[in-house]
Design brief:
By secondary structure, this protein is an alpha/beta fold. It folds into three domains: 7-29 and 214-235, no CATH class; 35-209, Rossmann fold (3-Layer(aba) Sandwich); 243-277. The protein is built from eleven helices and eight strands. It has a six-stranded parallel β-sheet with strand order 5-4-3-6-7-8, sandwiched between helices. A two-stranded parallel sheet has the order 1-2. Strand 7 (147-150), helix 6 (157-165) and strand 8 form a beta-alpha-beta unit. Helix 3 packs across helix 7 and helix 5 (135-144) crosses helix 8. One of its GO terms (molecular function) is glucuronosyltransferase activity. Keywords: Glycosyltransferase, Membrane, Signal, Transferase, Transmembrane, Transmembrane helix. This is glucuronosyltransferase. InterPro entries: UDP-glycosyltransferase, UDP_glucos_trans. One of its GO terms (cellular component) is membrane.
Length: 286
């Protein structure tokens, strides 16, 4: 692995946080997002009808690993109350079972065990997306330019959410805040009605569509280049050759520690010398 000629990483430099990487690192984030195929895919009549019911639509999906059906009851109830307060919005909720008595009578929710996520995100009638921030959903969201409310649950999801938040197209709230119906309602209203989120999300999508080198092109060109001219041992990181002492900067810390020790010893002996020169008289009391 360390001697590989090239490292492909699942990151998008125009989206990701700046970081230090080796010269062998080639970012190919978003390679799984096939924009041509997504643009060609059309929604079925059933889903198109759902999107036509109300002026606003929000997709709610927490992916395949984090299931909505396992959501704590207080979180689910807080989200439900927020949904009830937005009658002009259709909430398309990916929900994994048919036990929906808790949402009885709420007409602006469309439950489904499966949703055509990319096709919905590509449709102009979808106003926003509520997601956990998995890397797949994050990449699709960035490329398709939808405003989003991101609620990270675990693993890399918090990083993914904060990564998009700094571009201005999403709003991030903590998962436990789902129990607060006022906070979740305020967040939903911001994403749906504050145009700055939509505009900034669309700007990022436009940037990614027009990036100089597409991920698939990167993979092909670098693979062909390595096959023709590789390997490149001179590009190996020098850090691999450092000794234990050098790698952990023990030599540097030793010099710093020694300087502190010398300074402390100097102060101690000076103070001792001064106090020894000061005469001390003891007065005996009868």
């Amino acid at each position: 692995m360390p001697t590989s000629s090239v490292f492909f990483t699942n990151s998008i430099p125009y989206v990701d946080f700046p970081r230090t990487v080796t010269q062998k690192t080639v970012p190919i984030g978003g390679i799984s997002v096939d924009m041509a195929a997504i643009r060609k895919h059309k929604l079925s009549i059933e889903w198109s009808t759902v999107l036509d019911e109300r002026p606003y639509n929000m997709l709610i999906s927490f992916g395949s690993m984090v299931r909505s059906m396992d959501m704590p009851i207080e979180w689910r109830n807080g989200l439900l109350e927020a949904i009830k307060s937005e009658p002009n919005v259709t909430f398309i909720w990916k929900y994994e079972n048919d036990e929906l008595e808790w949402a009885q009578g709420v007409k602006n929710i469309h439950f489904s065990r499966w949703v055509p996520q990319t096709a919905l995100l590509n449709d102009d009638r979808l106003s926003a997306f509520m997601t956990h921030g998995g890397l797949g959903s994050t990449n699709e969201l960035a490329h398709l330019g939808k405003a989003a409310l991101m609620i990270p649950v675990f693993a890399d999801q918090n990083r993914n959410a904060r990564m998009l938040e700094r571009h201005g197209g999403v709003k991030v709230i903590e998962k436990y805040e789902l129990a607060d119906k006022h906070k979740i309602r305020s967040a939903i209203q911001s994403i749906l009605h504050d145009r700055q989120y939509k505009e900034k999300a669309e700007r990022l999508a436009h940037l990614l569509i027009n990036q100089p080198m597409k991920p698939k092109e990167q993979v092909v060109k670098y693979t062909e280049f390595v096959a023709r001219f590789g390997p490149f041992p001179r590009m190996d990181s020098h850090g691999r050759k450092l000794s234990f002492v050098e790698r952990h900067l023990l030599d540097v810390y030793s010099v710093i520690g020694l300087s502190y020790l010398i300074a402390s010893s100097f102060v101690f002996y000076v103070a001792k010398f001064v106090f020894n020169r000061i005469p001390v008289k003891f007065v005996k009391k009868d």
